[in-house]
């Protein structure tokens, strides 16, 4: 669900790429699963095949060893062997030679009975000779003879491993602990055992080993010593887990090996065969390589598809989106048409036509607003000037008649000049706020001469460096003098202050007049809210309010409320940007 919401708010490019990958990735995943499943099936079938082969050859070794062990007593109980071992040199040389030849023939017959027998021999200590199947004049190797005795075996399996040679022996008498009369031993052919083991996995490039962990011997054919040590560790793990047979995949020298193992109770040994996995899965490795090439090709396709989307769809679309954003910022700039007669070329042309139409409409509307604004300003000037001019000359005449008011008359003339110089300067619609405040101070200074100390005026607050429409503060102050302070008997107060909150700069004009009621304030506020729908001729607050809204927007302008001084509070909201 989160991914759906993410795509819902994403760009078209992301959505198309997501759809493309949603179609491509499952196909790649299915291909990978088919390849891996095929590899696993082939690995399992070959492992079972090798395990069956291991069972067969190990069973053959078991049967041969068991057959040799069961037939060995028949040769141990040979009468000629007993006679020579007991009489020794007491019989004649001829008789002894004849019996030895008979023994040799029987030993040779035993040797030829199995391809796994390398040599058969009889150890006779009384004559200090070892009789072989084809040789008589041999000496008795004391160490070898001692190794063949039963007391040297402390384990159940019939095999004796001595000097890298494997034997099955039996002594006479059987129950003698030491110094038997003679011993008959069969030396097994380790080469034949190696040859048998090699047949298990040699066709697939594998190597086999027969490991006896308790006696510490092994029979293997040219196996890497490091690999052999790993096989010993592997066999130890299986013995601890009491697992007799199975197969696993091991990692050695950066390569994977299929390892098949089988335990023989008779030999007390593990037969382990290691086959390189690349020999087994050669064709599938080729398919895996082809799969990675296909992945690389898919990446190339994704890159090409992404480049195609970005070049022919995403960039033109973003170009159109950025153009719309510029329109939102009141930047009506046409798009450079660099497309042919395709869909984007049509959209670009339609966008440029729309921009031209908007420009025409905006210019007409803006010019109309400017004309209205200037018309209201001129009307305000024309309405204010005659009335105020009459009052000014009346006050000036009064001051001139008075003998001790000539200095005030002179100052008043300066104020009148500054005032009407500001009023009659029509070349600029917007002026610095500092000039507007200075003009208002000039007006207040003129009124101070008229009213004397009866009205106290206080200006507070910083004046930011911004431009505002002309005559937005002085008419409000004039309105306070005219309707609130001019006719007051008690002391009048006028407080002009300001504050800035974020991007809004507010000028407060407050008085302590008592003539306005709460109902009248509410009615005035209502008229201000509906000023855009009222076309009557008016001056003062309504005029200033409309011109501010024309300049900055409907969220700015004038609001009125009850002042903390008791009279009217007028808030002039301006943009500080």
From TrEMBL:
Membrane topology label: Multi-pass membrane protein
Molecular function in Gene Ontology: phosphorelay sensor kinase activity
Keyword Phosphoprotein: yes
One cellular-component annotation, GO: plasma membrane
Keywords: Cell membrane, Coiled coil, Kinase, Membrane, Phosphoprotein, Transferase, Transmembrane, Transmembrane helix
Compartments reported by the entry: Cell membrane
Alphabetical list of InterPro entries matching this protein: Bact_2-comp_sensor_kinase (IPR050640), HAMP_dom (IPR003660), HATPase_C_sf (IPR036890), HATPase_dom (IPR003594), Sig_transdc_His_kin_internal (IPR010559)
Domain named HAMP: residues: 311-363
Annotated SMART domains: HAMP (SM00304)
Pfam families assigned: HATPase_c (PF02518), His_kinase (PF06580)
Segments forming a coiled coil: 514-541
Main location: membrane
TM spans (from-to): 12-34, 290-310
Protein's name according to its UniProt entry: Sensor histidine kinase
Organism the protein comes from: Paenibacillus selenitireducens
């Amino acid at each position: 669900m989160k991914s759906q919401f993410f795509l819902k708010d994403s760009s078209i490019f992301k959505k198309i790429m997501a759809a493309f990958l949603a179609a491509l990735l499952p196909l790649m995943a299915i291909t990978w699963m088919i390849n891996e499943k095929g590899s696993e099936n082939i690995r399992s079938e070959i492992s079972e095949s090798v395990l069956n082969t291991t069972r067969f050859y190990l069973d053959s070794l078991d049967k041969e060893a068991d057959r040799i062990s069961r037939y060995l007593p028949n040769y141990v109980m040979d009468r000629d062997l007993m006679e020579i071992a007991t009489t020794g040199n007491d019989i004649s040389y001829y008789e002894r030679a004849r019996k030895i030849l008979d023994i040799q023939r029987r030993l040779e017959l035993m040797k030829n009975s199995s391809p796994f027998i390398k040599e058969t021999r009889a150890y006779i200590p009384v004559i200090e000779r070892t009789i072989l199947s084809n040789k008589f004049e041999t000496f008795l190797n004391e160490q070898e003879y001692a190794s063949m005795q039963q007391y040297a075996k402390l384990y159940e399996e019939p095999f004796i491993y001595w000097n890298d040679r494997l034997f099955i022996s039996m002594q006479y008498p059987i129950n003698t602990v030491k110094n038997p009369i003679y011993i008959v031993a069969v030396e097994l052919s380790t080469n034949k055992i190696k040859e048998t083991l090699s047949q298990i996995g040699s066709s697939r490039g594998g190597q086999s080993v027969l490991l006896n962990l308790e006696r510490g011997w092994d029979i293997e054919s040219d196996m890497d010593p490091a690999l052999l040590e790993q096989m010993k560790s592997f066999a130890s793990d299986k013995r601890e887990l009491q697992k007799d047979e199975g197969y696993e995949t091991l990692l050695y020298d950066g390569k994977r090996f299929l390892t098949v193992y089988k335990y023989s109770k008779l030999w007390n040994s593990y037969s382990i065969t290691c086959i390189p996995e690349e020999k087994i899965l050669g064709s599938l490795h080729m398919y895996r390589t082809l799969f990675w090439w296909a992945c690389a090709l898919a990446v190339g396709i994704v890159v090409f598809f992404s480049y195609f989307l970005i070049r022919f769809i995403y960039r033109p679309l973003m170009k159109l989106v950025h153009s719309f954003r510029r329109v939102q910022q009141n930047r009506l700039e046409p798009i450079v048409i660099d497309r042919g007669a395709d869909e984007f070329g049509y959209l670009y042309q339609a966008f440029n036509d729309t921009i031209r139409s908007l420009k025409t409409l905006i210019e007409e509307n803006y010019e109309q607003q400017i004309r209205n604004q200037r018309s209201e300003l001129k009307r305000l000037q024309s309405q204010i000037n005659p009335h105020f001019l009459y009052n000014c000359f009346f006050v000036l005449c009064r001051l001139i008649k008075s003998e001790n008011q000539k200095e005030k008359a002179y100052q008043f003339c300066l104020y009148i000049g500054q005032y009407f110089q500001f009023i009659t300067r029509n070349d600029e619609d917007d002026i610095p706020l500092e000039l507007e405040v200075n003009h208002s101070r000039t007006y207040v200074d003129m009124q101070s001469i008229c009213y004397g100390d009866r009205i106290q005026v206080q200006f507070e607050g910083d004046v930011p460096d911004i431009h505002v429409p002309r005559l937005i503060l002085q008419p409000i102050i004039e309105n306070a003098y005219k309707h609130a302070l001019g006719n007051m008997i008690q002391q009048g107060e006028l407080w002009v202050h300001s504050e800035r909150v974020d991007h809004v700069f507010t000028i407060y004009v407050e008085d302590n007049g008592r003539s306005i009621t709460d109902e009248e304030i509410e009615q005035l506020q209502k008229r201000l809210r509906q000023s855009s729908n009222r076309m009557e001729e008016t001056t003062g607050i309504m005029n200033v309010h409309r011109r501010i809204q024309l300049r900055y927007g409907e969220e700015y302008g004038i609001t009125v409320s009850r002042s903390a001084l008791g009279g009217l509070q007028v808030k002039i909201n301006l943009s500080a940007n």
